[in-house]
Amino acid sequence: MPDTLGHPRLHLRSTDSTNERARALAMAGAPHGTLVSAAEQTAGRGRQGRRWSAPAGSALLMSLVLRDAPTGLPPLLPLIAGVAVCDVAGEHARIKWPNDVVLERSAGLAKLAGILVEGRPQDGWAVLGIGLNVAVSLAELPPELHATAATLGRPPSAIEPTLRELLTALERRMAQPEECLLEALRARDALEGRDVSWDVGAGRVMHGRAAGIDGEGRLVVAVAGGGRATLSAGEVHLLRR
Description:
There is one protein chain. By secondary structure, the chain is an alpha+beta fold. 39% of the residues are buried. A hairpin with a 2-residue loop joins strand 5 and strand 6. The protein has a 7-stranded mixed β-sheet with strand order 1-2-3-7-6-5-4, sandwiched between helices. The longest helix is centred in the C-terminal third of the chain and has 17 residues. The protein is globular and about 50 Å long. The protein contains 4 helices and 12 strands, in the order βαββαββββααβββββ. Helix 2 crosses helix 3.
């Protein structure tokens, strides 16, 4: 794709959700690369309808409108975004499949960034939303997040430079062959070797040990009791050791 990510740009002092704004722009015909960013979100959300919380002016809050290239939208878009965030965040950042970027602490994995992809593939567009804790002070977050959130610890003045870094990383990663992307993803896999659980519906929960990422970007799990499962979507929970 051409070097167009981030243009045109709508920056808002405050908005309900950058993804909502970007979706509206996409449906109105906004071009590929259109960026919506905000200093604050009042109804930011992640997967499963969860809230994304960050004090005003402390996080990179952005959503990109992406339209079909000749070969279509990248099928591994959330994973591509995760690798790009890791490129910016540094060597200690890891990807918690499928769409969180984390740092490892003694108490477990702490969330540094969340990724949410929404869209209408049938209409040839998607919105890529990323929330990255650039300058967040963990003490300012709700108490229930103190143990599970992470931050880059950069000053607020670093948010714009971090945005530029991330757009450049996204351009580069989106242009790579899938094999290169998957190699980078495996090197950043936060789950490999860890015990996990996941919901398979009807109140059933499966348990196993994460065993890497396959050639289609799916999570491979060695199932407790024998056999393997491959997960293409859904939420995976870490089990305490």
